[in-house]
Predict the structure.
Amino acid sequence: MTTVSSAEHSRRDFLYIATGAVGAVGAAAVLVPLIAQMNPDASTIAAGAPVDVDLAPIADGQIIKVFWRSKPIFIFHRTKKEIEEAQNVNVASLPDPEPDSERVKKGHEQWLVLIGICTHLGCIPLAHQGEFGGWFCPCHGSQYDTAGRIRKGPAPKNLFLPPYAFISDTKIRIGEDSAAKPA
Amino acid sequence: MSGHSTYQPTHPALQWLEKRLPIGGLIHSSFIAYPTPRNLNYWWTFGGILSFMLGVQIITGIILAMHYTPHVDLAFKSVEAIMRDVNFGWLLRYLHANGAAMFFLAVYIHMFRGMYYGSYKEPREVLWILGVIIYLLMMATGFMGYVLVWGQMSFWAATVITNLFSAIPVVGDTIVTWLWGGYAVGNPTLNRFYSLHYLLPFAIAGVVVLHVWALHVAGQNNPAGIEPKSDKDTVPFTPYATVKDAFLIVCFCLVYAWFVFYIPNYLGHPDNYIPANPAVTPAEIVPEWYYLPFYAILRSIPNKLLGVIALFSSIGILAFLPWLDTSKVRSARYRPLYRQFFWLFVIAAVGLGWLGSKPPEGIYVVLARVFTAYYFGFFLIVLPLLGIFEKTKPLPNSISESVLGAKT
């Protein structure tokens, strides 16, 4: 190879580095669609829209299950006794301390709306079972009370709350935190 | 690839690996230090382009397979869901469909290069035959991929092509029923085509490995058609061929991108946007453009069995090319008479392609028969005779001399 002056050396270096940089940007750009395509597609997102549930048919003490975003949602119409049991617990003694008032909407304390997935490893707990009046998970023995809080067993957290709001006294919309718009 | 490797890794970790699995040395000797004739022109970059396109098709194909459903009731809808709902689904689908077209464009240029410069001649006969095998696998893969869309063209192309086998005497109908998995093209057919369409590209990849291995044993051919005689005739593959290939891949991608982003449906048939209807055959059934020449050959023979034989032999005859061409001179650069017949062959092949898209009537039939006759005549009559009667031009003394001029 013929020798080149140092001025041309740096021009060649500049060209190499510039080409390499543009090539790297191109390679990254190519990766974007290849990876993004695995994210939920438009139809899955559309199917995850909020769900309206009519509470009127749910009897005192009854627990029903609906699906929102493929997750089971427990809706518990608590009796007065069950509400008092939940409110009278010593919060500091709980494995995951949380007062009952933070798990229900003000003025609608008889309605408990929870994501029905055990916070241990994801099984669906069984209703009206266990020592605490709430749920019992058959997979590894976790037990939840009438506010869906973990009391006994390996689950680390209380049953989670989905975003929901009351759009009337007898109707909730699961999937939206506030009822800004009417149904 | 014989003899002691010139690869001496400096990093201790690489030395450790090299002792146990000499993959570094293999890559070095095959793609870095590999002696490449210095006079290669841009027609030699299409091997690299084809490898790149195979990678593109496999990657986009595997991703499309995550969203596609191979059932007659759901296939067409799942393709539309890919187009409309999947993030960048439209891009992946168009990349894959137009990628197939670009793959075939590149393979035809690659094959014409081989025919012009005599790359199929001794000692590269096996290299050429491996290429024919790759080409056949590509045709099968492309055909089955097109069926998966389950549009009108998909369904009826599947029916027509599988029905070709009914031309075989005695066992033809049994074979067709076996291919279909039923009494007509249907769900079993779609399912098995999906399985095979996923499988064959990896078979292609395997034969490509053999193809490159056979190439490296003999060394590249070059535009002068004479073997390298000394180190002055070659340059190391990296950076010379690597950068040349990379550049042409980028240019090729520009053409590819033009189709994908501006005219993504130009090469396709609008009837394939109609869901398959087993009760109604479209007014014209045409395969994708890369099958048209063979389609024209099939239709130009009025007899069913002979037409099918003509179709398969028009591809199969390629495998015999190293022995049909009797000339001792490789490159068409030094074969003035062969060059003219070659370009007539190109015109015939492209002409047959155009005729394949036309209805089989009137002047189109006449022309198709003329071109078909020339196609077979070229292989069976022209090539064997030219080797005996052609007066070739004198060959240069060496590759470097043909490039740099004679200097003693």
In short: The CA atoms of residues 292 and 353 of chain B lie 5 Å apart. Strands of chain B lie at 35-37, 234-236. Chain B has 16 helices and two strands. The longest strand of chain B covers residues 35-37.
